[in-house]
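Issue 218. Parser rejects a valid record. Input:
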Amino acid sequence: MEETSNIQQKVPVSIQDELRTSYLDYAMSVIIGRAIPDVRDGLKPVHRRILYSMNEQKIGPTGAHKKCARVVGDVLGKYHPHGDLAVYDALVRMGQTFSLRYPLIDGQGNYGSVDGDSPAAMRYTESRLSRMAVELLADLDKDTVDFVPNYDDSELEPSVLPAKFPQLLVNGSGGIAVGMATNIPPHNLGEIIDATIAIIRNPDVTLEELLHLVPGPDFPTGGLIYGKSGIVQAYTTGRGSITMRGRSQVEKTMKGDREQLVFTEIPYQVNKARLVAKIAECMKEKRIEGISEVRDESDREGMRIVVELKKDIFPQVVLNQLYRLTDLQATFGVINLSIANGRPAVLSLKDTLSHFIEHRREVVTRRCRFELRQAESQRELVEGLGMATSDIDRIVATIRASSDPDDARENLQKLPLRGLGEFLRRAGRPEPECAEADTRGDYFLSERQAKAILEMRLSRLTGLEREKLAKEYGELSQTIERLRAILADMGLLMNVIVMELEEIKARFGDKRRTEIVPAEAEIQMEDLIQEEDMVVTISHAGYLKRTPTSTYRAQRRGGKGMVGMEAREEDWVSQLFVASTHSYVFFFSDKGKVFVKKVYEIPQAPRNAKGRAIVNFVGMEPGEKVAAITPVPSFDGETFVVTLTRRGQIKKTALNEYENYRDKGIIGVRIEEGDQLFTAALTDGKRELVIATRSGMSIRFPEDQVRPTGRATMGVKGIELDEGDVVVGLGVSGDGRDRVLAVCERGYGKQTPLEEFRLQSRGGKGVILIDASERNGPVVGVAMVSPSDEVLIVTDRGQMIRTKTSEIRETGRNAQGVRIMHVGQDERVVAVEAFAADAAEAEDGGSTPPSAGVDGTNGVADHAGGNGSSEVN
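Output the parser choked on:
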């Protein structure tokens, strides 16, 4: 005989095809078998297996609590071959009153807290099914759902639970699968049941009618929902964003002269301990002004977070800041994704309830069929026993004449009985229902009836027992009639579903906890803060502050100026700009990221104060520094942000690309290694740009030579630099500003008409800007000015001078200029800022000038002198 080869044939497989197939199999396994709930019972497999296992172990609401370790072990061993921690976490969450609107587990022991405390180990905690969970498992033993083999084919488990109420919407769900996620909020049981009944009564019910019944989610932690637009969108499309807020009230403090905000409810899924810590952090860093103390006074009676306010503080202002800066206002992103008909689908409110109704229709139908079979089977036995009691003498004689039980059974089946009429009359049933009677009225027993008679006790022959059999027969007949009617009439079947839903509502329904309030025009911080121009300064060491421009009185050129910041030997003012309190401020970091703030958010301080660390204020990462700042009055699609690096790389990007900013910053510009961002300015795309260098060179070219690009680009070359030279200024022409103001380190400067700088192509070496002699020192910065403008000049010792540009001499490009500010021997100018001002008002005492920000296309060059760090190491 020829030996059979054991060598298996190798078939080449494409790695791409294999990975695609394997990953898709894995993805579907996660989606269907782990992360996404079933639309019918609202449960994921792990939750379904936990409830089924506890039901099998008879750990019900009327019994004693059992150790969670026992439940977890049974679930792992029989149904869920995954990690024990995953099973225990799922079990614990079903017992947390702050996670589920209607908990499915009645827990005993430490089940965690709203502060984020972890639950105790499973060997310490105990659990049992809640009464609500029993309603999910009801009728499981009546062939209502299909059972499937477990992971090793040793046990059977239900593929879905019968679920008497829409668990998916009532308790919600959340999960992340492969390529998709679900996030379904909890709802009020009574409202969801009312909506379900409404769809049963009228399948064409509209969303508007359902919204009257289900106004929105109902979170276990209460709180407020602001606005209905997100709810309507979520209920219509299955996706939406819902704004949640904590519930607050204003109380008088014990001292009586102050007020305090007291929060008794917080948004769903917000960690209370982290929330209190965040409020304390905002208070400490003075991001929220007006808070004197924050404390958590929560106890077993309820939640109570107290924010004590300083004297004469308007509570609504602090409340709005808390909503904006902390999780007292949070967003719930609804993704109503579930498994429907074996596939993941995003469903509307009506579709979700319709799937549940179809599930209940199938469950009730299968239950009625099961109960009908059981009733008919039982009635058959009762009927046989009734016949036996009516003709007992012949039955006994037949049994005694038989040789063995099998012979007795066969003889009984052949014995014609005539007591059917009498038995039916006792049962109140004049006509035979399922008896096998021939044309002569004889009744013959079936095999099951004959066996039942042989196993019958003699006590059943008493008169009382005969009456009980007759009564039972009558009740079974009525049950059979009712079940047959339900199965034959869809209307009656749906009435059964409605009746059961109403019963659940009557037993477990409660009042709504979350209040839904219409979206009002919120009190914006701008409405509570006076609009005025501010001088914003940033020091070399990274301290930031804002000071009213009126603080700096106008002086004649050549003066010594006044102290603008209390400077230390190791720190000095390096940047400044003027902007309205209502303007935005773009902070460009040296890594090319952009952080957006409002001017009024910058801490206000006296002109000689140090200010606040800008890194903490903006929220930059360790090691990240501010490279450039620029004010932005509003986001405009026709405005551009022009950025310039020390090596002369220039880039232009539409302003509206920065509109979707985040607290953690967004990409603003890509920086080449060894280079650093220097400044940023706003333009309308039709200006001329002037770039100045430290050695006194400059180049003028049309802005349209720099084509607009996206945020994450590097830009193009603006000027060719000599070795050792760097860019120190960017000027933007237009709006009557036709002079180039150049200022040097030793306090000298000059104005030069723009036309003296011939137009060139970008990327050239340019022409002389100013004679940067030993007397003048290197160039510090440039600005485009008009005769009516004013200029602020800052030294590294914190000295500032504000003067009119009309007092600065106008000379040619090669001139050295005049003394604008007197600086000491070891002092030097580090920054210059020009802004528009009314000349008459300035002479009368330096009143606040008009806005120096971008106003439409007017004044786009006002802050061109607001350079990035003018300090060159």
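Fixed in the parser; the record now loads. The chain has four domains: 43-162, 247-327, 361-488, 529-843.
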